[in-house]
Amino acid sequence: MDFLDQLFTNPGITRALPEEFAATMQMIGISGFFTLLVGLPLGVFLSAGAPDGLRPMPLTNKVVSGVVVNITRSIPFAILMVSLIPLARLLTGTSIGPVAASVSLSIGAIPFFARLVETSLRDVGSGKIDAALVMGSTRMQVVTKVLLREALPGLIAAFTTTLVTLVGYSAMAGIIGGGGLGRLAYNYGLQRFDTTVMVVVIVIIVLIVQAIQLAGDWAARRVDHRSAATAGRGKRLRRQAAVQVVGS
Prior knowledge:
single chain, mainly alpha, 12 helices, 0% strand, disordered C terminus, MetI-like, MetI-like_sf, transmembrane, transport, AA_ABC_Transporter_Permease
């Protein structure tokens, strides 16, 4: 009963939680949008510009892939966020709050998502690409109508994984001034030794991750024509088998 009483009387839950939850969703939304906006074209370039890609650009690809993407991915996010405080202040006019934290979140997530996009595009069979080129398709048409369409389930799964990662990043951002559930857990749960707030924050973060994962898995299954075709063949085979059993 004490735990239930604190859920309705604890100011960290009744007053601070709604505001910090909204801040976390704001950070995830803004950084997720810019990660998709920049990371998807960057991943396409990493795949198409590779030495064995659709439009080989070995030198440029090596610089972007080996220097920009790899170096950014290798920096721990806590250090990256602190080092990007001047940039966040320049772009947003402030160094604290969810909007300012979204700058670091986006820069930290874009290379991660771009690598996942590159991996998904490489899984597309080369035969489909060659067939499109033989039929006279331009490179841009191959990218938009073959590569991206065939890799769409993998791209959705990659973006889902990136959003889940951003949830964890946003919790760390809260400790460094970004706000959100991370700040709530640190200020109330850790510094004030409030176990109730800590438990509630952990449960909410788990629920957010589960909701993102379930939505991403559902969307990936909806656009996966391979699984749909397999399911269709399975239904036809079951109907044929039933007809044969009845006829016999």
